[in-house]
Amino acid sequence: MSQATDTDVREDGQIESVSGPVVTATDLGARMNDVVYVGDEGLMGEVIEIEGNLYTIQVYEETSAVAPGEPVENTGEPLSVDLGPGMLDTIYDGVQRPLDVLEEKMNSAFLDRGVDAPGIDLEKTWEFEPTVEEGDEVEAGDVIGVVDETVTIEHKVMVPPDYEGGEVVAIEAGNFTVEEPVAELSSGEEVQMRQEWPVREARPAGDKQTPTTPLVSGQRILDGLFPLAKGGTAAIPGPFGSGKTVTQQSLAKFSDADIVVYIGCGERGNEMTEVIDDFPELPDPQTGNALMARTCLIANTSNMPVAARESCVYTGITIAEFYRDMGYDVALMADSTSRWAEAMREISSRLEEMPGEEGYPAYLAARLSQFYERAGYFETVNGREGSISVIGAVSPPGGDFSEPVTQNTLRIVKTFWALDADLAERRHFPAINWDESYSLYKDQLDPWYRDNVAEDFPEIRQWAVDILDEEGELQEIVQLVGKDALPEDQRLILEVAKYLREAWLQQNAFIEVDQYCPPEKTYRILQAIKHFNDEAAEALDAGVPVEEIQNVDAAPKLNRIASTEDDEVPEFVDDLEESLSNQLRELY
Ligand code: ADP
What is the value of pTM for the model shown? Predict the structure, then answer.
């Protein structure tokens, strides 16, 4: 984005009125979505409505000192991000201003107004290594070289999507800034590492494919029951304190995505500060390097201006698309999309638009789906495959899922992880409700699970689902008449379901051996519980009372598999299964 300074705002138009983040101006001669600089201070804004000679602008900064009559400058460019090496290991605000650069410029963590900064460092040089030679033909999107962006990620330098392409007439290795040409094409075009892209427009890609690989999260309930596909969409709605942030962060840390884009969208200020402080400290379990080496953070706290919150999800997804184009699997987390929708609502009401449900604009559903639609498993323009998986947290007021943001999100996403205040209160974590949650990717991911985890994974998962369902129904009876009134076989189901909940579904994000569970271990725990179930059913058939079955010494050890080191799991479970068989068979 080009630089504005607070002294030389060109007077293309004049401010007519100011209402919070919404400013109107006359005579601007701008197009929809053009970026403008507003007032003597040159605050950044975007044209969102044009009526005759009246231009409505949403301003990304505090407008309290702006007055009618002040100048407005039109850049003639849509809101864009700078794409290139240097985005990883960086924390941005909602319009891609690096927070550390802003802080330095103002010498304080409190963002002043009218300060602009390019999204990537224009002075830093990168060691460029060509991957094509002079004489090669290249097209838009093709990779022509690489730079080591971080210790973890190799950044692919691509011919911009709007280039004509042609024969490479000059290219060489060396150190370049992001604005220096690294290659020259016969078309006369010069390729530099930096590309600009308007955030509200999806970057071009080939066809979306049906995703068939899971985004392995290392969370048993997700990988086991409600898997998300690479390129899929998921929503985590939940009331305050139910674990949205912990779940999003576990996904950021442990999911097998190459790149993580984490959008902290207007959550309470101090919570975002936590993320900003914590993330740079986190190690990357995949590589041992810092997690930030494959992460880009976009931070918009609720004390930042509302319009910047509206734009932050677009900034995030555009950055995600750029890494997708390089052939990477990107996981994008937005926490929370409710704050984003509230920003939309606030701007809409300032515009005096006709409000829809609960005051949200009528276009809420369209905006949500435009955002989630940018997720997918794609063939990229350069013939690679890349994906963007989008996981949106939703914070419905009072945990009421019938409100418009949750409902509209549910119509779009294919995976739903419903957080539950009751489970959280009972300290059952992750507090994901297995009755209400679902994944529509299950069937298409089954072949992957059969090939990569266990041939019977889908069947054993279905067995677990059935037991949990039956438990749900039996609990209703138990509440009326008590457990003792149930027949023996039903009491056994309750016992087995208890182990499914405690030994399998519960997972502690704060215990090192348990915070990441490989799919093999997820499967093995399940298998052990099923083994107990099958042996117990035989004992029951042979007349052993359920009381005695419950009391075998080995059974509670099922709860210990999760906290057993991954490499010790096979032996531990083999021994446990043997003890279970022996002890249960001794009873008859
Ligand atoms: P939210 O973002 O929904 O307000 P948080 O993610 O901050 O909620 O979670 C609230 C608290 O719940 C955490 O501080 C933690 O104590 C507990 N918690 C949530 N998920 C887990 C988990 N997987 N393991 C252990 N504790 C958890």
Answer: 0.92
Residue where the block lists tokens 């698309």: 321
Is ligand 1 within 6 A of the CB of residue 371? Answer: no
CA of 23 to the centre of ligand 1 (A): 40
- Of all protein residues, the one whose alpha carbon is nearest to atom 4 of ligand 1 is 241
Tens digits of per-residue pLDDT, 116-158?
678 899 999 999 999 999 999 999 999 999 999 999 999 999 9
| 285 belongs to an annotated ligand binding site | no
CA distance 65 to 12: 20
Give CA–CA dist 331/249, Å, rounded: 11
Q: Which tokens go with 219?
A: 């969370």
The residue to which tokens 């947290």 are assigned = 393
Q: How far is CA 463 from CA 322, 359, 528, 531, 562, in A?
A: 41, 44, 13, 12, 20
Which residues does residue 137 pair with via DSSP β-bridges, in sequence order? 167
Establish whether the linkage from the previous residue to 336 is cis, with ω within 30° of 0.
yes
Would you tell me how many other CB atoms lie within 10 Å of the CB of residue 414? 19
Considering only CA atoms, which residue is closest to atom 5 of ligand 1?
243
The two three-digit tokens of residue 564, written as one number: 């057993």
Which of ligand 1's atoms lies nearest the C-alpha of 424? 12
Beta strands, E only, 307-453: 329-335, 376-379, 385-394, 415-416, 438-439
